[in-house]
Amino acid sequence: MPKLSVIVPFYNVQQYAPDTLRSLRMNARRDFEFVLVNDRSKDETPAILDRAATDLSDVAQVKVVHHEVNGGLATARNTGLDAATGEYLTFLDGDDWLAPGYLTELVTAIEDLGCDFVRTDHVQATARARTVHRVPVGRRNEVLDPRAAILPADRTTSVDYAYAWAGVYHRRLLDKGLLHFTHGLRTAEDRPWIWKLHREAESFAVVSLLGVFYRRGVASSLTQIGDARQLDFIRAFDQVVEETAQDPDAEQLLPKAVRTYCAIIAHHLSDESKWEPAVARQLRTLSAAAIKRMPQDMLGDVLDTMDLRRSSKLRRLRRRVTTAKAAA
């Protein structure tokens, strides 16, 4: 069994894939496994990965999987999870990169702590600018309860730091069904995943380890494209709310889920200029329906405690639903 499997989905990233692959080589060990998933790229990415399989095979174990149909990031990661055989697992996106030696430090951290998963800080790279982003957990290098890190509802917590690649995970989580992503989600795929991990895993820790470089501003990234695929955040957060409502501690945890859902809706509504006109209309319609599905008493409490700018947008949506219902 490899010590670590690194799952890396690629889609139309021929410009960045060589940097990603070079960083893997600078982290390679004979007992590391690199699972490279080509999600039906239309550029030169597949050829780059096939060459990488040969180039990297002298320093690590390598698997290349080619999708026949593009399935999106969540599905590509699931393909990687199904192919991975490591004792520990981590993720990297095909346009990001790692600092030399980072993966060995990551494995050392989780082995020393002996917990289910470890979360790390990361560096955001926008053009030539570099910004450090920290896990919103103050206690470092000690084993913690993942459920306790979900709250409080009115502050940024560990479930808001949803980046799957910012950490490492023991295989027992995969065996328990906690590492797979919701099939077909094109965006916000990390959100149901991180919530489930924190509700159902038994232990985690946060370490002050910087080694993942997250590239922002990539033209092909869904965060830069205002098309209908971005609306999958509705499906993602519906899942978060639905699953959290079934939790034994739903009364304590659900306000956090509702508040985060509301904040994300308000964020997208405040940036409607990036959306195609038809998609912007669909965004408003789907957001209004989402507001209607939320627990209304809890929604009222959340809106009362949010800032005026965001709560005003959401109250207008809520009134739209009420008015339409009355007219019907």
- SSE order, one letter for each helix or strand: EHEHEHEEHEEEEHHEEHHHHH
Low-pLDDT ranges: none
Shape field: globular
What is the terminal separation in angstroms?
A: 61 Å
What is the number of E strands? 11
The residue-averaged pLDDT reads 94
Strand order of the largest sheet: 3-2-1-4-9-6-10
Please summarize the sheet with the most strands: 7 strands, mixed
Give the amount of beta strand, in percent. 15-25%
Helix content: 40-55%
Tally of individual helices: 11
Q: Assign the structural class, choosing from mainly alpha, mainly beta, alpha/beta, alpha+beta, or little secondary structure.
A: alpha/beta
CA gyration radius, whole angstroms = 20 Å
Characterization of this structure:
43% of the residues lie in helices and 16% in strands. It is α/β, with parallel strands linked by helices and 328 residues long. The strands form 2 sheets. It has a 7-stranded mixed beta sheet with strand order 3-2-1-4-9-6-10, sandwiched between helices. A 4-stranded mixed beta sheet has the order 5-11-7-8. Helix 2 (45-56) links the parallel strand 2 (32-38) and strand 3. Helix 8 packs antiparallel against helix 9 and helix 8 crosses helix 10. The longest helix is centred in the C-terminal third of the chain and has 20 residues, at 250-269. The protein is globular. The mean pLDDT is 94.
